Amino acid sequence: MERILATYYIETPLAPEKAAEVLAGEQSSGTFIAVPGETEELKQRFAARVEKVTPLETVSTPAMPGAASSSGQYNRAEIKVSWSVENFGYNLPVLISTLQGNLYELRQFTGLKLMDIELPPSYARYYKGPAFGIKGCRKLTNVQNRPLIGTIIKPSIGLTPQQTAGMVKTLVGAGIDFIKDDELLAESANSLFNDRVDAIMKVINAHADATGKKVMYAFNISGEIDEMLQRYEKIVKSGGTCAMVSINSVGMSGVKKICDQRQLAIHAHRNGWGMLTRHPLLGIDFRAYQHVWRLAGVDQLHVNGIQNKFWESDDSVVSSIKACLTPFYNHQPVLPVVSSGQWGGQAPETYRRTNTVDLLYMAGGGIMAHPMGAAAGVVALQQAWQAAVEGLSVEQAAATYKEFAESVKQFGKK
Amino acid sequence: MERILATYYIETPLAPEKAAEVLAGEQSSGTFIAVPGETEELKQRFAARVEKVTPLETVSTPAMPGAASSSGQYNRAEIKVSWSVENFGYNLPVLISTLQGNLYELRQFTGLKLMDIELPPSYARYYKGPAFGIKGCRKLTNVQNRPLIGTIIKPSIGLTPQQTAGMVKTLVGAGIDFIKDDELLAESANSLFNDRVDAIMKVINAHADATGKKVMYAFNISGEIDEMLQRYEKIVKSGGTCAMVSINSVGMSGVKKICDQRQLAIHAHRNGWGMLTRHPLLGIDFRAYQHVWRLAGVDQLHVNGIQNKFWESDDSVVSSIKACLTPFYNHQPVLPVVSSGQWGGQAPETYRRTNTVDLLYMAGGGIMAHPMGAAAGVVALQQAWQAAVEGLSVEQAAATYKEFAESVKQFGKK
């Protein structure tokens, strides 16, 4: 019978083997005292199994509140635990409850992070994965051999549909591939959703009619189920190609329902993610996280960016990009969305470390605040990526490309 | 215009006032460089506002990775930030993205925890809250003036519907008020959902016909939207009164959709919660957490228990119970579900600290492994609560009540 394998980074006052057994028991057939009905046969079939324990460093200060160590030492380790697919079949919420549920409350751990998940082939058959993914998003935007260049409408909140559409007009005229709502905006008092779609799609459709290029706009449909489905339909009817969902806030069941429609590319915003990953010994690593959302069918997924304005290290961002691009059987990979303080200067380093242009590269001020205007801002980003692929440094790129040189003057080295 | 107020516990290398402004900016109209279209008028209307900053202790080691402090000192503080309801109207996922979204990634914080939320009266009018709550759950189970006594079928996973129904038969015969599936079980290879409902409801309905008491069984419907709705309907048609949802795994939009049906009491399991709260300086406090789920309409919500088997302190559990019982305008309060290693010995302390019997008190082995049998186990729990209300200590209660005395011998002082 197929099994699902989860890797955890743990810290425990116990021997790591013992702690791993506690976790496996709690997440399959454990209770605090033996009760009737618990037979060896069903234990064998449904019990979680500790597959591997790799001891790591020992520390004297626990990372989090939990059981005290009698020796004063806390042992870190990597452990691998497996479950039979018979336990839950194909049910993502229950998979999540099993791999990342009550185990975080066990006092036997002073640190616990889900690092990775390995799923059997039948999961790739049961779930369709991204309806568009990298290939489909390239086709929708007609962009090949370079990252899609995108931007977020700022300020996040407060613009009227007409003001937003005005900015969209500037951006599509500038040659942008992708634009998105901010995650703080779904429908505000002065920007009703349908009005915003009407105003924006009028601009995008007119540009598409004139040039053949349909810019992808990710409208934030995050909300209740029926509302999301209505707004999804509004986008489809208006000729849009993408909907954005705040995946942590909407949650798995809601996101899956939206992805299942398979008519629009789904832009997955991971706001709230910091809460789930920021502590090195608590929560989830992106490698595990991206896996379940790809199963749900999101087409684009945020990964932060190199030299970002947030707390995340470049190593972590690189690892996240690679995770998105790692094949899952025959599924389309998800398009990594690079953002946060990006202006093009990070392109050479991003390319050097990931060796890919399969990205949606988002820049905010880097476009709208370019000294030569938004069109030059978009060109500068394309140049940055051209230079990156050519193996040029930021300095060499600036010496070669005029618009990019202006970006360096404006946004570089602050 | 009404505003929503959020309280955060923060740690920052900056002056707390400065860090608070960064948070407010990021979560309303912030970007890394000024762009056209940002007028003073819309800033005033849509900008988040720092309402209060209360400096607390200073530490020399940051709680989490973030910006380094030039002084080597990290300042802790409580801050209050408000948003106009005009920013999002009545949209829980967007409320969540605003109050607990990207802010967790800000490098200007080395610790950030959402502690509480204050919502304006219009939220109590727009959202209906729990369809049943404490009052409704008491009515459905016909239990007054004491906690509902409940249990979880164990082992968590592996029993057939017939085995489960057999245990249910013992339990309802024993006088239990409430039984639930484990969160690890929705539908397993040897326990199909519909078969389980049929087998269990046959027992529960027969018992109700014979005695007039309908035991509440929380069937775990966690899954995809359509599947959850089908299973919900199956429970309704079979005469059931409750459905269980793993709220973190299903997510807000899915849970809201289920609650909106308002025909069954919704048992909200918070598995995965440890990840969101276990670190003292990261994530969410239960006071804030329970608020949004009550708006969604859950009727019962897990709070762990006094002297539990998990990491959580008694203080934290007491605070959670009180949060559930705190009125929100005219909404029914949510029924706190007390569980984890409970066997009745914790009843006096639980009552002493919370002064309430408005609880669903869950015991596992405490019932099924009682030396005199399950019926005595249920009686022992009722006695424990009777004694608690009478102000007896565990020792005094054991001297008074025979079945409880056996519990003390079996489960006390390990």
From TrEMBL, chains A, B:
Ranges where the Ribulose bisphosphate carboxylase large subunit ferrodoxin-like N-terminal domain occurs: 4-123
Keyword Membrane: no
Protein name, as recorded: Ribulose 1,5-bisphosphate carboxylase
Family affiliation: Belongs to the RuBisCO large chain family.
Entry superkingdom: Bacteria
CDD domains: RLP_NonPhot
Domain Ribulose bisphosphate carboxylase large subunit C-terminal: 133-410
A Gene Ontology biological process term: carbon fixation
A Pfam match: RuBisCO_large_N
Keywords annotated in UniProt: Magnesium, Metal-binding
Molecular-function GO terms, alphabetical: magnesium ion binding; ribulose-bisphosphate carboxylase activity
Cofactor: Mg(2+)
Matching PANTHER family: RIBULOSE BISPHOSPHATE CARBOXYLASE, RIBULOSE BISPHOSPHATE CARBOXYLASE LARGE CHAIN
